[in-house]
Design brief:
Blueprint (H helix, E strand, L loop, with lengths): L1 H9 L2 H36 L4 H9 L3 H17 L10 H38 L4 H4 L1 H24 L16 H8 L1
Helix pairs in contact: 2-3, 2-4, 2-5, 3-5, 4-5, 4-7, 5-7
Length: 187
């Protein structure tokens, strides 16, 4: 019970940690599946035209970026939440907000990685049939990447907005009253 009280009721560290874990989970699963989709197409293409290995490798690796984006989001949650300094600095409300940020950003990373894997597979197929179009073929999966980057930037902005610091380096985010104070005020 002390664990729950300390990390979920008095501070928001528990909620933020779950948000970071969920984000990395979704981003990692999506990247793995997206790479699998593209790699299956790349393996077939390279068996026919081994000289396309470099182009196919780049297109296959593109869906892996969402896993890295998810890791960056998780790291910023841990950093801004005080986990890395052993100095918890977020309220339960901010922790819940970080849980939401991690969940929604992770879902975007997951879906965009899978979609990017499918578009990368189509681009590999295009490159196999028309090698001179290899440069243009990379543009299609990069368009899908745009929305993974938007989700990354939105998550980082929200994390920074929720956890500002004053000029002395002290947390200046959403302020809260400890639960004891709330219950005393109600009585």
């Amino acid at each position: 019970m002390d664990f729950v009280h300390q990390y979920f009721l008095e501070t928001g560290l528990g909620w933020a940690a779950i948000g970071g874990i969920v984000c990395v989970m979704f981003g990692g699963i999506g990247s793995a599946k997206g790479i699998r989709i593209a790699a299956a197409e790349a393996a077939g293409a390279i068996s026919e035209k081994p000289e396309l290995f470099g182009r196919a490798l780049i297109l296959t690796a593109l869906p892996g970026t969402q896993g890295f984006y998810s890791f960056i989001i998780m790291f910023m949650m841990a950093l801004k939440g005080g986990l890395l300094e052993n100095k918890v600095s977020i309220s339960p409300v901010v922790g819940l907000a970080m849980l939401a940020i991690g969940t929604f950003a992770g879902i975007v990373q997951w879906r965009s990685a899978i979609n990017q894997g499918e578009v990368s597979a189509a681009s590999i197929n295009l490159t196999t049939k028309r090698p001179e179009e290899g440069g243009r073929a990379i543009l299609f999966p990069v368009l899908v990447e745009t929305y993974a980057v938007v989700a990354l930037l939105a998550a980082l902005l929200m994390i920074f907005w929720l956890t500002p610091v004053d000029p002395q380096g002290n947390p200046a985010g959403i302020q809260y009253l400890p639960l004891d104070s709330v219950f005393k005020a109600i009585k």
